[in-house]
Write a structure and sequence with these properties.
The protein is an alpha/beta fold. 35% of the residues lie in helices and 14% in strands. The protein contains 13 helices and 12 strands. Bound molecules: 2-keto-D-gluconic acid.
């Protein structure tokens, strides 16, 4: 659908607190409706705020399922997400109503890849356990047998989903002399592959790596990609890293494998039902857990906001937005 430029400033519901510079640009170019105490809106609240609005600027914390999309007022022309993942929005429902949906790719790849490496190292070198020992004063001895972890240098890194974040993670991992293998819907061109070994089937990747890092979107096909069956195919002692979405993992199956030591350790930044995560993860020493902070750097938060606004600017100037996903 095409829109003619508007005479007055478009009204935009901004669901969460955004960086100062992003909010300043919103004030300059739009009529923003901010969320001063940054609480997570219920669907009813969001629908009420959307009354007369031209667009929404939500985060992944707002669940715009088919029911919510159906209740949006006809005035809403666009949903410009402050996120690269769009599993919180029913794209088909938005498309059916002619609502443009955009995301913020590219700008968070470096920050998220940093967190993937942090999780990899933290899980492999038992960082959470070590930190706890020092903080609680329970660290009483040192011995060559103390807190022995796993080394990632020179090991095989398997990447599921070799998109933007996967590719940056691969580049950073090469700094640790890791050999990169990957599974992706399509094989990458050689210049993007950088020598990484392609596995057409996920199964073949699972048994080939020492560390497995998840970087694919949450879709119906990738739901519980890590489950009892796929875990059984992993090399014993594997380290699992997830910076993508909790929905990729069957928690019960992973916890069982972590308890048994079949999966040596997991570094997780994303969870099913977050922030109300499966309590089992907290009880284990071989988990290194972060609260969904993959893209939480100043540079990246600004860049995500500007990218969302670039998309909105395009919509309201009757141009095609750069990051349209529906
Ligand atoms: C964001 C993310 O912090 O962009 C994504 O998909 O998962 C995170 O990096 C969050 O989604 C912002 O809405």
């Amino acid at each position: 659908m095409q829109y003619t430029p508007m005479a007055s400033k478009p009204k935009v519901v901004v669901t969460r607190k955004l960086p100062e510079a992003v909010e300043a640009r919103l004030r300059r170019d739009y009529e923003p409706v901010f969320n001063p105490d940054d609480h997570v809106y219920s669907t009813d609240e969001l629908i009420a705020l959307a009354d007369g609005a031209d667009a929404l600027l939500p985060c992944h914390s707002e669940h715009l399922d088919a029911g919510a999309i159906a209740r949006l007022p006809a005035s809403v022309k666009a949903i410009a997400n402050f996120s690269v993942g769009v599993d919180h929005v029913d794209l088909d429902a938005a498309k059916a109503r002619g609502i443009i949906v955009t995301n913020t790719p590219d700008v968070l790849s470096d920050a998220t890849a940093e967190i993937a490496l942090l999780l990899m190292l933290g899980a492999a070198r038992r960082a959470a356990e070590g930190d706890r020992l020092v903080r609680t004063g329970e660290w009483r001895l040192w011995s060559p047998a103390f807190m022995v972890g796993r080394q990632i240098t020179g090991k095989v890194l398997g990447i599921v989903g070799m998109g933007r974040v996967g590719q940056v993670t691969a580049r950073r991992a090469r700094g640790f002399d890791m050999q990169v293998h990957y599974h992706n819907r399509r094989r990458l061109p050689a210049e993007a592959e950088q020598g990484a070994e392609f596995h057409e089937r996920l199964d073949s990747l699972l048994g080939a790596c020492d560390v497995l890092s998840l970087h694919c979107p949450a879709t119906a096909e990738s739901h519980h990609l890590i489950n009892a069956e796929t875990i059984a195919r992993l090399r014993p002692g594997l380290i699992l890293v997830n910076t993508a979405r909790g929905a990729l993992v069957d928690d019960e199956a992973l916890l069982e494998a972590l308890r048994a030591g079949h999966v040596a350790a997991a570094g997780l930044d994303v969870f099913n039902g977050e922030p109300a995560i499966h309590p089992g993860y907290r009880e284990l020493d071989n988990t290194f857990l972060l609260p969904h902070i993959g893209s939480a750097t100043r540079e990246t938060r600004d860049a995500m906001g500007f990218r969302a606004l670039d998309n909105l600017d395009a919509v309201f100037a009757a141009r095609e937005p750069g990051d349209r996903v529906a």
